[in-house]
């Protein structure tokens, strides 16, 4: 890179707290003109907070931001844009009802005669932009009708249609095909040559290794290291990302699973796009973890199983009998439940009480004639509150008032009441603090001990390793590898549980990365 | 799936992946004909009445002009409604506001002359729109509730103002300009509709404001992330809607030579139906002023035709409801 790199963006001692939680703690971070700088870290490490501060969505609690040496006074999206910061979101900045060209020039429309918008000129310029990038997207198509990859490309063109000095990309390749990724990289290299400072956030280490010049790694809201990529190996990066803590998972005791009868058998299951051709058997009394990067089809698998997404082909057998799952109702009736990824929208009715939420799935059973029996509902819910140790002021408290961990327990309580055999949990600890994470992991183990079959999807590998008996690795909608958790145990290492977990996590992490790179 | 024997090497063979092409999306253009259902429906209904009611004078130029006059207020309010719906909001207060404005204008004309009357009418419309906008965007009450409450307030104010009595308008200039007059062969009401529709169409299609309205309704988050002040957009569309309601109210007053609190009663539903028939989305993000005008005309033609067919009022209501339901069902079937 340049011998005298001039920082285009500088974060100086930036901290940010949400309520009592420190999302960023005194972070220094700078990006030079003409460099691609990777920003790495686990979920919750503080990456997205940095992005939101750069974009003006959040104001820092402490510290300053400089763009080209000038401090950024206002913290609004408009001020960030004026300073030349362009951001590529995961489809967030496109209005589905407008055309591609209209979206690209949204809020900086091209004017023709009489100061009226010239949509033809916009379409022509958009076509040129797409052509210069060597991609084909119809500028006159409505965004709602585009494929995910085309939408992503539209986002990129939208960002670079203005003169940006800083371009921020947040997981830009999740929706792109291999060829499209190559095109994106070509675009980024061209922008880098023009002196644009590029911040690149991704979980995909092979891409980072190929495209980035430097990397900054965050962990728990702090900056761990900033170094040129030439000095970082995959192992080193993972080590920095994972850190050396045991994360409080070490006290989750894992007994050897007593594998019972097969409860869920899947053969050749495919969704409309993902997953594809999944074979999987879940046995009573075991926890199976699913690892994979964003977009690997993990959540799609859960949605197809639960009947939210349609399946294209394949067979699902529950307790030996072939079943057709046309919707969540069918799944629940067969004893399969989903603790969804987005508990705030899909899992809970936030304004309703703990009792109302936890009894939602069993209203029929609680009712006599048409009236829900308050006494029976209260009884059932109180039992779960005690069993799961849900901390709420009372069963009448609104779900909104609970902490993330306790909210998640309410979702689990809802399903426990329905007495299912098979649990599918999608990112069960997202947005949950560390202490409650361990409790939820323990809860998952508890489900298996009670003879349930459990499928856990998670981006946090230490969590998967602690919770699961087996781990599947998915990429591009397929299961590409399967491991017994015991395989990750280091034979010649010491007995320290935290150390062992740490070691296993690093191994699993490189497996996931390599699986993605290979595909 | 075979299990790994050991983990010494991470380089285990993985299943070859055939690059499956993403499922092709349904061609968008194919579904687009539904956008024009209002135009098609309008043509069909028009032809139907033309043939069946030929001997009852449906095609008589006077009857056709009458339809245009009768629907002018609905058409004009549907221009404002197109903006409100496109921005993802709704305005239920317009009908009652039109009635209130007719009275305010009549009273002001009586006391201070026609110019004061028009100024007072416009001011009331703008004020109601501003209050609707402020409550919706600053206080955060959904526009459905804000404008539902405003509906009652406007109606109550109108009734209270003159103890439910109607107020006659004697000023000839006002009556000529707002309703009674003709410019050559063209009724002035039709001219009002035409002018407002053309302005409304161009502003929505070809100005940055119009684009911001559509973006706000299409995805508020996307609009905000693109630097659009969505609250100001919503405020403005509600003011526009209040203003078109005010103009409609004055046209009612001019046409009937008086202000009455009952004027505009129930118009909000016809106006929303007209906009939706024309292809404006109830969920925001898509709207066309031309479509709304055609939707209004369609409702006008249906009303007129059913009347000429000799149906009783009760039967008219049922038939009109069914026709609108069918048309809206077709035009909405592709949306979300």
Concise overview:
The complex is a heterodimer of chains A (519) and B (336). By secondary structure, chain A is of the alpha/beta class. Helices cover 35% and strands 24% of the residues of chain A.
How do the SSEs of chain B run, as a string of H and E? HHHHHHEHEEHHHHEHHH
The portion of residues assigned to helices of chain B is: 55-70%
Main structural class of chain A: alpha/beta
- Fraction of residues in β-strands of chain B: under 5%
Tell me about the largest β-sheet of chain B.
2 strands, antiparallel
Strand order of the largest sheet of chain A: 6-7-8-3-9-10
Q: Radius of gyration of chain B, rounded? A: 25 Å
Helix content of chain A: 25-40%
Describe the structure.
The complex is a heterodimer of chains A (519) and B (336). Chain A has 18 helices and 22 strands. Chain A is α/β, with parallel strands linked by helices. In chain A, the strands form five sheets. Chain A has a six-stranded mixed beta sheet with strand order 6-7-8-3-9-10, with helices on both faces. Chain A is globular and about 70 Å long. With 336 residues, chain B is mostly helical. Chain B is built from 14 helices and four strands. Chain B has a two-stranded antiparallel ribbon with strand order 1-4. In chain B, strands 2-3 form a two-stranded antiparallel ribbon. In chain B, strand 2 and strand 3 (186-187) form a beta hairpin. In chain B, helix 2 (37-52) runs parallel beside helix 13 (289-308). Chain B is globular and about 60 Å long. In chain B, 48% of the residues are buried. At the A-B interface, helix 2, strand 22 and helix 18 of A face helix 8, helix 9 and helix 10 of B.
């Amino acid at each position: 890179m340049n011998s005298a790199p001039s920082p285009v963006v500088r974060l100086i001692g930036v901290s940010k707290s949400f309520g009592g939680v420190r999302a960023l703690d005194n972070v220094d971070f700078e990006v030079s003109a003409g460099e691609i700088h990777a920003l790495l870290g686990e979920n919750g490490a503080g990456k997205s907070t940095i992005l939101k501060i750069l974009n003006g969505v959040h104001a820092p609690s402490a510290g300053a931001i400089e763009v080209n040496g000038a401090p950024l006074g206002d913290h609004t999206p408009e001020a960030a844009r004026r300073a030349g910061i362009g951001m590529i979101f995961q489809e967030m900045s496109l209005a589905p009802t407008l055309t591609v060209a209209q979206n690209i020039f949204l809020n900086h429309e091209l004017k023709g005669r009489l100061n009226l918008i010239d949509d033809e000129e916009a379409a022509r310029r958009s076509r040129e932009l797409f052509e210069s990038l060597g991609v084909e997207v119809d500028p006159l198509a409505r965004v709602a009708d585009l494929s995910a990859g085309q939408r992503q490309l539209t986002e990129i063109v939208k960002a670079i249609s203005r003169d940006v000095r800083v371009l921020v990309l947040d997981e830009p390749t999740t929706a792109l095909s291999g060829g499209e990724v190559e095109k994106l990289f070509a675009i980024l290299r061209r922008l880098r040559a023009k002196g644009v400072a590029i911040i690149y956030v991704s979980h995909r280490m092979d891409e980072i290794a190929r495209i980035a010049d430097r990397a900054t790694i965050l962990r728990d809201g702090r900056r761990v290291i900033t170094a040129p990529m030439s000095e970082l190996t995959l192992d080193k990066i993972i080590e920095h990302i994972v850190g050396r803590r045991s994360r409080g998972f070490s006290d989750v005791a894992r007994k050897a699973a007593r594998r019972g009868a097969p409860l869920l058998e899947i053969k050749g299951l495919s969704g409309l796009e993902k997953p594809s051709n999944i074979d999987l058997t879940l046995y009573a009394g075991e926890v199976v973890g699913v690892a994979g990067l964003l977009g690997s089809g993990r959540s799609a698998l859960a949605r197809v199983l639960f009947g939210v997404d349609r399946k294209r082909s394949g067979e699902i057998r529950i307790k030996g009998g072939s079943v057709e799952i046309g919707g969540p109702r069918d799944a629940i009736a067969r004893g399969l439940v989903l603790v969804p990824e987005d508990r705030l929208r899909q899992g809970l009715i936030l304004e309703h009480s703990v009792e109302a939420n936890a009894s939602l799935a069993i209203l029929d059973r609680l009712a006599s004639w048409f009236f829900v029996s308050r006494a029976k509902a209260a009884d059932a819910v109180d039992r779960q509150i005690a069993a799961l140790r849900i901390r709420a002021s009372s069963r009448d408290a609104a779900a909104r008032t609970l902490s993330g961990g306790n909210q998640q327990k309410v979702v689990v309580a809802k399903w426990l009441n329905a007495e299912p055999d098979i649990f599918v949990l999608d990112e069960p600890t997202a947005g949950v603090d560390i202490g409650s994470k361990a409790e939820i992991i323990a809860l998952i183990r508890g489900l298996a001990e009670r003879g349930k079959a459990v499928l856990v999807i998670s981006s946090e590998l230490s969590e998967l390793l602690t919770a699961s008996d087996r781990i599947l690795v998915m990429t591009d909608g397929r299961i590409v590898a399967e491991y017994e958790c015991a395989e990750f145990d280091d034979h010649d290492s010491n007995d320290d549980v935290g150390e062992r977990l740490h070691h296993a996590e690093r191994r699993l992490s490189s497996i996931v990365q390599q699986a993605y790179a290979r595909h | 799936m075979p299990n790994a024997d050991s983990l010494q090497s991470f380089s285990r063979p993985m299943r070859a992946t055939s690059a499956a092409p993403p499922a092709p999306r349904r061609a968008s253009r194919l579904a687009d004909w539904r956008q024009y259902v209002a135009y098609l429906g309008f043509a069909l209904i028009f032809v139907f009445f033309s043939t069946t009611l030929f001997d009852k004078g449906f095609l008589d130029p006077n009857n056709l002009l009458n339809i245009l006059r009768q629907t002018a207020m609905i058409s004009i309010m549907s221009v404002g409604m197109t903006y409100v719906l496109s921005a993802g909001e709704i305005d239920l207060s317009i009908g009652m506001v039109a009635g209130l404005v007719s009275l305010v204008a009549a009273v002001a004309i009586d006391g201070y002359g026609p110019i004061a009357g028009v100024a007072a009418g416009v001011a009331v419309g703008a004020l109601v729109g501003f209050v609707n906008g402020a409550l919706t965007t600053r206080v955060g009450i959904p526009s459905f509730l804000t404008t539902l409450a405003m509906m009652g307030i406007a109606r109550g104010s109108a009734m209270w103002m003159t103890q439910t009595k109607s107020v006659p308008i004697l000023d000839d200039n006002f009556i000529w300009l707002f309703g009674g007059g003709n410019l050559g062969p063209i009724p002035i009401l039709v001219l009002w509709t035409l002018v407002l529709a053309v302005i409304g169409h161009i502003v929505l299609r070809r100005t940055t404001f119009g684009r911001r309205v559509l973006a706000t309704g299409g995805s508020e988050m996307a609009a905000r992330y693109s630097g659009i002040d969505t609250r100001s957009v919503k405020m403005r569309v509600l003011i526009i809607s209040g203003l078109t309601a005010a103009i409609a109210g004055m046209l009612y007053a001019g046409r009937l030579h008086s202000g009455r609190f009952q004027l505009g009663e129930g118009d909000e539903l016809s106006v929303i139906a007209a906009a939706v028939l024309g292809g404006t989305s109830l969920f925001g993000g898509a709207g066309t002023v031309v479509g709304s005008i055609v939707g209004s005309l369609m409702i006008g033609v249906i009303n007129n035709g059913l009347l000429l067919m000799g149906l009783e009022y009760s039967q008219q209501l049922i038939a009109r409801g069914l026709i609108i339901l069918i048309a809206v069902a077709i035009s909405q079937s592709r949306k979300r």
